[in-house]
From TrEMBL:
Protein name: Glutathione S-transferase family protein
Alphabetic keyword roster: Transferase
Keyword Acetylation found: no
GST N-terminal domain mapped to chain residues: 1-77
InterPro entries, per the entry: Glutathione-S-Trfase_C-like (IPR010987), Glutathione-S-Trfase_C_sf (IPR036282), Glutathione_S-Trfase (IPR040079), Glutathione_S-Trfase_N (IPR004045), GST_C (IPR004046), Thioredoxin-like_sf (IPR036249)
GO molecular function (one): transferase activity
Pfam family, one: GST_C_3
GST C-terminal domain sequence ranges: 82-215
Alphabetized SUPFAM superfamilies for the sequence: GST C-terminal domain-like, Thioredoxin-like
Domain of life: Bacteria
PROSITE patterns xref list: GST_CTER, GST_NTER
Length: 215
């Protein structure tokens, strides 16, 4: 099974970690920005990352890919079966993908990715996102996090993974999330990052991120 994409992408990291949690062996091949192997070009006709290549089965979009993976390996589902927990998990994935990521992208892209691509960054947009938009994200998480420290079912699920992935990227170039202001949220993020599957994924992307930061 091949995952096509760039490891530091929150969406690619989500799939990599999800596969590790499910015990699914994958190979990651670099792709994106119109470049990639044939499986990527065929499986992702609109240039989305990640893309999946599992034999002759081609698919793109992180949500579609993890849905496939979760069904492929039944057992301790990362997407809970209990109706309310399942619904909350899907909400938190939507929250991470469509609420947090667009804000976080303003910070990570303009402070890190733009320079690597030799594009003109909008550092003002990054600063506004950091000071005016991300605090609302942290406030929300601080309010909804249970005492267990996990968003759903008192265990690590897709909810935590999806919500944390874009915040991990923000943390590469922002120190806005402080334990003084958001103790539960800061502790939750550290707990997610300490998960072996997440820690391994971050270790494998570290060199790429550092190279982009230094450009």
């Amino acid at each position: 099974m091949i995952i096509h994409g760039a490891r530091p992408s929150p969406f690619v990291r989500k799939v990599i970690v999800f596969a590790a949690e499910k015990g699914i062996a994958i190979e990651v091949q670099t792709a994106g920005f119109g470049r990639g192997a044939e499986g990527y070009m065929k499986g992702s006709p609109f240039g989305k990352i990640p893309a999946l290549e599992d034999g002759d089965f081609l698919l793109c979009d992180s949500t579609a890919i993890i849905t496939y993976m979760d069904a492929l390996r039944p057992g301790q589902e990362m997407i809970p079966a209990e109706p309310k927990a399942r619904a909350r998990t899907i909400w938190y994935e939507e929250f991470g993908d469509t609420v947090v990521q667009p804000i976080g992208q303003k910070i990570f892209f303009n402070r890190v990715v733009a320079r690597a691509l030799k594009r003109e960054p909008d550092l003002g947009a990054a600063d506004v996102a950091e000071t005016d938009e991300m605090p609302g994200i942290y406030d929300y998480l601080e309010d909804v996090l249970p005492q267990s420290g996990w968003l759903v079912e008192d265990r690590f699920t897709l909810a935590d993974l999806a919500a944390a992935c874009p915040i991990i990227n923000v943390g590469y170039c922002s120190d806005g999330l402080t334990a003084d202001c958001w103790p539960k949220t800061a502790a939750w993020l550290e707990q997610v990052k300490a998960r072996p599957s997440v820690a391994d994924a971050m270790a494998l992307e570290a060199a790429t991120v550092q190279a982009m930061i230094q450009k």
